[in-house]
Amino acid sequence: MNIAPGKNxxxxxxxxxxxxxxxxxxxxxxxxxxxxxHNTQYLLxxxxxxxxxxxxxxxxxxxxxxxxxxxGGPDHAAYIGNRMEGAEHQNNPFWTPTLHAACWGxxxxxxxxxxxxxxxxxxxxxxxxxxxxxPSDAYALIRKALPDAKLIDATDMLERMRAIKTEAxxxxxxxxxxxxxxxxxxxxQWAREGTTKVEMIEQLRREETNRGAHFEYCLLTLGASHxxxxxxxxxxxxxxxxxxxxxxxxxxxxxxxxxxxxxxxDAELQDLLAEVETxxxxxxxxxxxxxxxxxxxxxxxxxxxxxxxxxxTDFFAHGMGLITHEAPFLMTNHPVTYEGTYxxxxxxxxxxxxxxxxxxxxxxxxxxxxxTLAVTDAGYVMFGDxxxxxxxxxxx
Length: 396
Prior knowledge:
- By secondary structure, the chain is of the alpha/beta class.
- It has helices at 17-27, 37-43, 85-91, 106-119, 136-145, 155-163, 167-190, 197-210, 267-284, 293-305, and strands spanning 31-34, 57-58, 61-62, 66-70, 73-82, 98-103, 126-129, 150-153, 214-222, 240-249, 252-261, 313-319, 352-361, 365-375, 380-383, 390-392.
- The chain is built from 10 helices and 16 strands.
- The strands form 4 sheets. Strands 6-5-4-1-7-8 form a 6-stranded mixed β-sheet. Strands 9-10-11-16 form a 4-stranded mixed β-sheet. Strands 12-13-14-15 form a 4-stranded antiparallel β-sheet.
- One of its GO terms (molecular function) is aminopeptidase activity.
């Protein structure tokens, strides 16, 4: 399917065009070829093809969506997708003036992208690509077919594009966080003595799905163990439970951790969770537009260093949105391998942070809180801000 530009074809661009154009200019990019699911989703205003939502491989190749966007030229934009996506367009038309719903693999998608770049007169342009999300066969085809083009890594530019959330994105992140929190609480209350980790994880999956969230993972510990993988281990009286889950709502991530107890927490457990909470609150106190990101990190780390639980406790903060670790990147290789490129930059309004303090106590187990905050001019707004103490199991 090839839909040519027409009158008013680009009246509904779903992103801040001026901002994206500015970021492309700063990165030296004339034309974008976005090929990751998250960036194509962003540039298409939230659309993701359901058939390939949980997989990529098909036949001898894989699904490769492509959004072609020319700086300052939305009338030249195109979406290249799978053949079945023509039906999606019939129901909810894509904003791009050109649509090629014609592909079953990487090479036909890359060929159509090349044809479109030539058609708009940009065969020798500076073309932004996503190296980590562009298969080698598609890259080789583009490189050979456009010998005069300069292929530029657009990863940083695209990360900066997504760093500042719109109000609509913030609402999706809020809903995702609320749904995950509700689901974790329901699972803790449902679980009984003898309930296994495997059973709890499956129950959480049902709870999230029934609430309209898409379950992605659950990392769960019981008792003194620090092992968060699924297993037949069963919950016993007096044991702690940590439940850390990621799920999404319309593609936006909810990622939180809460604590449970089968029985009543003793004084030591109350004290240990209070230590974790102190570090969290210390970090929160520095979250505000204009604060240098690294200052928030160092403030929390300083308080943790002086704590009696410091030898077995870790603090971490990262950006999140369409994916679990995105801009702002505040810490280097801790624990995920990337550079903390935003540590020396000020936090900006509508950035979203995940803040987490994790204690691996040698006797009492895995004790953690993870929270989601949206940066505001005055400070922050927290999503899913409930149940941050000891939640009793077996209460349903």
